[in-house]
Amino acid sequence: MTANTKKLLLFGGTFDPIHNGHLATAAAACNELAADEVCFMPAATSPFKLGQACASASHRLAMIELAIAGNPRFTASDLEITFPPPSYTFNTLQRLQVMHSNTNILLLIGADQLPKLHAWLNINELLRLADLAILPRPGYSTAPAAPAQIDPAAWAARPRLWLATPLTPISSTHVRQRVALGLPISGLVPPAVERYINQHALYRQSA
Ligand code: ATP
Predict the structure, then answer these.
(1) 176 lines ligand 1 (CB under 6 A)
(2) pLDDT tens digits for the chain (207 residues)?
(3) Which CATH architecture does the domain made up of 6-169 adopt?
(4) How many angstroms is it from 109 CA to the middle of ligand 1?
(5) What is the residue with the minimal CA distance to atom 27 of ligand 1?
(6) Which end of the chain is more exposed for a tag (fewer CB within 10 A), N or C?
(7) How far apart are CA 149 and CA 120, in angstroms?
(8) CB neighbour list of residue 72: distance below 8 Å, 6 or more residues apart
């Protein structure tokens, strides 16, 4: 790694919809890690959410674009939605590493992902490819225990960065539930995302 190596945080997820928890924690992570860029990448379909109703990829990407406008270190990528679902982070990471030379790519994940990490495609190889930067999330332990069924050598091979980002008790599920109940979501999503949800009548049916 050279002094001018770019630091990119890959923030993948369903983003159905993107909310202020994603935005606040990503901004804090970007500052804490002195990253050059946070790349928000909506999954075509998460392998963990197959069969679950979801807004279209184009709606989810459009809401990300609205939400990040004005933050020069935030970008949105359609990489995963251009490939057939499900979206596997291992494949995405390999593609990104080819596309971005001289770039240190870290995976930004919430602490709720750790208990499922062993089920990620090629997790042991993935852990050898990239560092994890972990966002604390209300209700999830920040004890840095190795997740079950993960090769201890792979777990030890890379640092895992437990970030000191603020605990943000917002989830997309909560946002969708409030919309379905006709309740306001201001403060949970940026105003432009709230307008988009209203204009396109998203999430009116409870899942
Ligand atoms: P859902 O409620 O639909 O499961 P979600 O709010 O968890 O959605 P995702 O799009 O699934 O949002 O999450 C994308 C990434 O952001 C994941 O790594 C997740 O752990 C993380 N994340 C989501 N919300 C928060 C939050 N409030 N604080 C920290 N990390 C978060």
Answers:
(1) no
(2) 666 799 999 999 999 999 999 999 999 999 999 999 999 999 988 666 666 778 999 999 999 999 999 899 999 999 999 988 888 999 999 999 999 989 999 999 999 998 888 889 999 899 888 999 999 999 887 665 667 778 888 887 777 788 999 999 999 999 999 999 999 999 999 999 999 999 999 999 865
(3) 3-Layer(aba) Sandwich (3.40)
(4) 8
(5) 21
(6) N
(7) 11
(8) none
Beta bridge partners of 74: 38
Choose which residue among 77, 112, 193 to substitute to test ligand 1 binding: the one with the highest number of ligand atoms within 8 A of its C-beta.
112
Q: Where are the alpha helices (DSSP H) in the chain?
A: 20-32, 57-68, 89-99, 123-129, 152-157, 172-180, 191-199
CB of residue 23 inside a 6 A radius of ligand 1? no
Q: What's the rounded Cα separation, in Å, for the pair 162 and 41?
A: 21
Round to whole Å and give the CA distance between 4 and 88.
29
Six-digit token pair at 120? 């990620």
Domain ranges of the chain: 6-169
